[in-house]
Amino acid sequence: MKKALYKTVYHFFPYFNNWLRQIKDPRNKKSITYPLPLMIWTALLLFMLKLGSRRQINFQFNTVEILKNIFFLADEDLERIAHHDTLSYLASHINTNELSNLRTKMIRRLIRMKALERYKLKGYYLVAIDATDHMKFRYPHCDWCLKMERSGNIIYYHPVLEAKLILQNGIALSIETEFIENQGEDVDIQDCELRAFYRLTERLKKNFPQLKICLLLDALYSNVKVFDICKRSTWKYIITFKKGAMPATYQEYECLKDAAEDSRKLYQREEVIQNYAWVNDIEYSHHLLNALECKETKKNKEKRFVWITNFRIDKDNVESLANQGGRLRWQIEEHFNIQKNGGYNLEHPYSKHIVGSKNFYLLLQIAHILNQLMEKGNLLAETVKKLFGSIRNFSRSLLEDLRTSVFDPKDIESIRLAAFQIRLHSP
To answer: Is 390 a residue whose pLDDT tops 70?
Structure first.
C-alpha cells in the first residue's frame, strides 16, 4: 500500500517536496524544530488516512515504523514528530495563499502532463462550482461569521465556495476555493455565494489564464453578470435552467420548443430511454442562450433535466452535453458528502482559529487530490474494489502498513530508475 502511495506522488508530482520547501515559513527560523515539509506531510496524512481529528496524530503516529515513513516522505531526518498542537499553531500562522498556490501547482502539473486530457468535453475542462457548509457554532466564533436564525436560535457559520475539476470517471479535484465570510462583525449585508463566485472566478482566470473551461453551475448562477464573466473569460457554461430563476426566458423556451420539431433526438441504451429537445439563440439581455432538455425514463420512472448553455446544440452533441456535461454537476455534491462523511470529517473544527481552519480545509483538499489519484490509478483501483470493499477500508489498511513496516530502499530505487505510467481508470 505505501509503495503505491510513494509511486503515485512520485509519478504525478516529482517536485512535491521542493514545492513544500518553497512555502514561506512564518515561524522564527532560530526556534524551528520541525521543518515545514514534515509538518505539511503530517497534516496531509491526517486526512489521507482519515483519522478524523488532530488528536489522533499523537495516538496513530506513534510507532517507529510510521515515524520513519513520514520522515522518508518528507525527505527529512528527525527522531520524533510534532505534537498536534504544534501543527495547529503552524496552520494558524501560515498564509493561506501558500497552500492555495501549492494546489495550483499540482493541478497545473496534471494538466501539463495530460493526465486529464481524455476527460474534456468538446475540448473544455469541466469545472463545477458550488457552496457547502464548513463549520457551524452556537456562539459567535469570530468577527467574520455569517449569521442565520433557525427555530428562534442564532447559528454562526462558515460556508465555503468550492471549484472542482470534474472527470467522467468519478474524480473531482479541488482547483479553487473562496471562503464566504463577512468583513467584520457589524455589516449591513452579509457575504453570499454569488459574491464569492465573482471573487473565485477572477482568481481562477488569473491562475489558469489559457485553460479552456466549461463551468457546471446550479440555477442560482443564471444571471447576466455570470454570463458576462464567461464571455469575457472565453469560458463555456452549462447551468441548471429553472422556471423560478428566469421565468420569462423559461416560458419562451417552452413555446419555442413546441414549435421546433426538428430539434429532437431519441437515445436508448439498455433500459434507459432519453428524449432530447433543444432551442438555440434565445435572446436574454445582450446574450444568446441555448436551452437543452432531457427526459429520461428508466424502469418506468421519469426524470427531467433542463440546462442553459453557450454551446450551440445539435443532434451530434446533444447527448454528450447532457450526459458528459450537465449531469456531472452532481459529482461536486457527492464529493462534499465524501469529505463530510467518508472519513475526512470536513465539518470538524480542526482549528478554531479562523486562519487555521482555512488552512486545514485547504490541506484536506490537497490530501483528497492525492487520495483520488491513488485510488483511481491503475496501480490500485481494482485492488481497492476486490480486497478492501471500500475506500475507507483501504485507508485503514494503508495506515496499518505505514505503522508496521518501513519503505524498502530497493523498491524506492526501482521506482526512481524504471519508466512507468499511471493511468486513471475510465468510468
So the answer is: no
Q: Is residue 381 over pLDDT 60?
A: no
Concatenate the DSSP letters of all residues of 346-386 into one string: TTS-S-SSHHHHHHHHHHHHHHHHHHHHHHHBTTTHHHIII
In this model, does residue 114 exceed pLDDT 60?
yes
Q: What is the largest CA-CA distance in the chain?
A: 76
pLDDT band (50, 70, 90) for residue 383: low
Enclosing domain of residue 56:
2-94+342-417
Burial class (CB in 10 A: 0-12, 13-18, 19+), 15: exposed
- Are 140 and 156 in contact by the 8 Å Cβ rule? The answer is yes
Domain identity same for 278 and 384: no
CA–CA distance, 209 with 262 (Å, rounded to integer): 38
Name the grid cell of 369: 487530490
Which among 307, 336, 365 is the end of a domain? 336
Predicted confidence (pLDDT) per residue in 3-16, tens digit? 889 999 999 999 99
Domain count, the chain: 2
